[in-house]
Amino acid sequence: MTSRRARASSGTPALDLLTGSGASFRVHEFEHDRGAASFGMEAAEVLGVAPERVFKTLVAQTDRAADKGLVVAAVPVDKQLDLKALARELGCKRAALADPAVAERTTGYLVGGISPLGQKRALRTVVDESALSCETVLVSGGRRGLDVELAPADLLRLTDASAASIAR
């Protein structure tokens, strides 16, 4: 499933990581509409993919000292991150969405294009367990209008993520 175009012109750290990983993946590019209300839902609609297979990448702040309390959560675009469930999974008392500027600075990606792959600083990552019921899932490839499709097992392996029920 690896795209030749991805090998030839990777362009983002996420695609660089995928290209060197040996994982099978497919690149999906589309013209991003600056007026779109939801980057993830836009991707699902434009690409004709069920929203439960397209995962948004969110950065959360917890009360843990490790990694300044920052963690990555990936949930389907048609769901919301359950912050209490995320905190429970991490053994924390609470979690909240991180400030967008902190998320951008930490990951190296712009909001709307934050990928769980190839981040500037590797953070603990939790993927909603619903991903495991899909043959493939789509996540941001590192910029708006660029998604990558890969097997959930590869997503978990490449991000050293755990899977848990963190969406509602």
TrEMBL record:
It is an enzyme of class 4 (lyase). CDD domains: YbaK_deacylase. This is Cys-tRNA(Pro)/Cys-tRNA(Cys) deacylase. The lineage of its organism: Bacteria, Bacillati, Actinomycetota, Actinomycetes, Micrococcales. Belongs to the prolyl-tRNA editing family. YbaK/EbsC subfamily. Its EC number is 4.2.-.-. NCBIfam families: YbaK_EbsC (TIGR00011). One of its GO terms (molecular function) is aminoacyl-tRNA deacylase activity. Keywords: Hydrolase, Lyase, Protein biosynthesis. Gene3D superfamilies: YbaK/aminoacyl-tRNA synthetase-associated domain (3.90.960.10). GO terms for biological process: translation. It holds the Pfam family tRNA_edit. SUPFAM superfamilies: YbaK/ProRS associated domain. The keyword Endoplasmic reticulum does not apply. Residues 42-158 form the YbaK/aminoacyl-tRNA synthetase-associated domain. It comes from Flexivirga oryzae. InterPro entries: Prolyl-tRNA_editing_YbaK/EbsC, YbaK/aa-tRNA-synt-asso_dom_sf, YbaK/aa-tRNA-synth-assoc-dom.
